Amino acid sequence: xxxxxxxxxxxxxxxxxxxxxxxxxxxxxxxxxxxxxxxxxxxxxxxxxxxxxxxxxxxxxxxxxxxxxxxxxxxxxxxxxxxxxxxxxxxxxxxxxxxxxxxxxxxxxxxxxxxxxxxxxxxxxxxxxxxxxxxxxxxxxxxxxxxxxxxxxxxxxxxxxxxxxxxxxxxxxxxxxxxxxxxxxxxx
Length: 188
Fold this sequence. Notes:
Shape: globular
Number of domains: 1
CATH topology: Uracil-DNA Glycosylase, subunit E
Strand order of the largest sheet: 1-3-2-4-6-5
Radius of gyration: 15 Å
Number of helices: 6
Number of strands: 6
Structural class: alpha/beta
CATH architecture: 3-Layer(aba) Sandwich
CATH class: Alpha Beta
């Protein structure tokens, strides 16, 4: 259902593809398109508060050309970074089911195979971390904000920049910026 603020806008309403180059050295794994963000705009983390939080941190660390993204044609470009998700359609109640994650898992497996230059992965939330590990066929890594799991590639764990986490202070702008500063340090 459309929000009143967007009632005059045409919603994308289709699967939302990953954003950024397959040659990127940083991969950001989110959760799924937001109902009134990516589902409305057609681009990952675009047009909602989660994206505002994420793109600011990416911009501050040299991974994005601007700190905000409101729509697909707004000029935002990612620099040496790609953003994807284990689920590419809006899930019921904004939380993907195990069935949706399993169904879409083959796409994440294929995407990872097409990204040989990745040196760091930022997993935004426990579901993203678990889906990434499943796609790689590796043991699940420990979840905890700011944890760094060395390897090829190195995996950095963060809380998801959802309103639930940012408005309660569980995830602050400084905490998210520090995650991407670590990613910048790792990839050089």
